[in-house]
Amino acid sequence: MMVETQPILSASGLTMEFRGFVAVKDVSLSVTEGSVHALIGPNGAGKTTVFNLLTKFLTPTRGRIVFRGDDISRLKPAEVARLGLVRSFQISAVFSHLTVLDNVRVALQRPAGLATQFWRSSDVLAALDARALELIDAVGLSEYADLPAVELAYGRKRALEIATTLALEPTMLLLDEPMAGMGHEDIGRISELIRRIAKGRTVLMVEHNLGVVADLCDRVTVLARGEILADGSYESVSADPRVREAYLGTEHE
Fold it and tell me: What is the value of pTM for the model shown?
């Protein structure tokens, strides 16, 4: 008998009102542990609001969010990050004039308990180099380790951002439009990166590039006007006439 994998993140009855305007209405969502799950929909569908609710940048008007069995509905972003639920930009501000190695080493100082210990000797901080170089290699930036971040191409800056996020050792990673503004070559590179980093962890992503969604994601949730329109495999949701009318038919030829 096949054992069902339990959801790592779930939301029930999630509602967000802004001065009488209902941006998200009664959204229930379940993300299976170890999966890559996409949240898609047309502009104004409520994707960003749902993402902000799940990552605690907004507190829901109503509803409940559970992560790894714990109710996180009223927690702060830093608190849920410490639980292992990390949004890509939470610690990602890339320091343009630091090298790739220094950026990742700075990110590693927080989980190592060194984040505010600027007086520690360079030898102590250098102890982080092995893990930093491992993360840099994982995102394909080894040959750029000594290059200032400002000199990286856009796609490689996004890869560096993911490396700094991975420094927090998340069990679940939330990516907000990771392919935004990228050309074809960078999209292919970052897609492969996401595929690699998804091994051993869960990924929830908001993404407009439906080719990427079809290629990477195990499950897709479609939002329209603040409500869930469809949920399932890419094949099933893309065949749904309501989804085609609301989104796919106009943006995916």
Answer: 0.85
Give me the CATH number covering residue 207.
Answer: 3.40.50.300
- Distance, in Å, from the CA atom of 127 to the CA atom of 150, rounded to the nearest integer, reads 25
Sequence-separated contacts (24+) of 141-146 with Cβ below 8 Å: 141/100, 144/100, 145/99, 145/100, 145/101, 146/99, 146/100, 146/101
For 101, the domain range is 91-167
User: What are 190-209's pLDDT values in tens digits?
Assistant: 899 999 989 889 999 998 88
Number of domains the chain is built from = 2
Domain end point (choices 107, 139, 167): 167
Q: How confident is the model at residue 19 (pLDDT cuts 50, 70, 90)?
A: confident
Residue-wise DSSP of 2-36? PPPPPEEEEEEEEEEEETTEEEEEEEEEEEETT-E
